[in-house]
Design goal:
Layout lengths: L1 H61 L5 E6 L2 E2 L2 E8 L2 E6 L3 E5 L3 E2 L5 E8 L2 E4 L1
Length: about 130
């Protein structure tokens, strides 16, 4: 009788150990997927910022002279730090895990975080 109890106890601990290892494996797998999800979310956020800026400048290029508008670009977007670069008729938005470059019309000035003022005078688009 004592031998049967000892065997049941040993089997219980073996199954408990296996259950723990399986749970640990699932946790490790889900952490990898969570990191991938955050990276994809960051890439989508960078793309979203770039496309919004492109849209603002395309609107300014399509309207008549006298167009003026102020718009905000957040310091961080959904908790993601990023940088903006305007060069050679493109805007580059870059973060730790994402990079997105979009073409824009020719502009004078640079887009920056915070308040940006855009206007069109004499067929030229001015930023800030």
């Amino acid at each position: 009788m004592l031998k049967v109890r000892a065997q049941i106890s040993a089997e219980f601990f073996v199954f408990l150990g296996l259950a723990f290892l399986i749970a640990l494996a699932f946790e490790i797998a889900s952490l990898g997927q969570l990191k991938d999800f955050r990276t994809e979310k960051e890439k989508e956020a960078v793309k979203d910022i770039a496309l919004k800026l492109q849209k603002e400048l395309l609107i300014a290029a399509a309207v008549e002279d006298g167009y003026a508008r102020a718009f905000q670009i957040p310091e961080t977007f959904e908790g993601i730090n990023y940088s903006l670069t305007t060069r050679n008729s493109t805007i580059t938005v870059e973060s730790k895990n994402g990079l997105y470059v979009v073409p824009i019309p020719s502009v004078v000035g640079n887009v920056s975080k915070g308040t940006n003022k855009i206007n069109r005078t004499g067929g030229v688009i001015y930023i800030n």
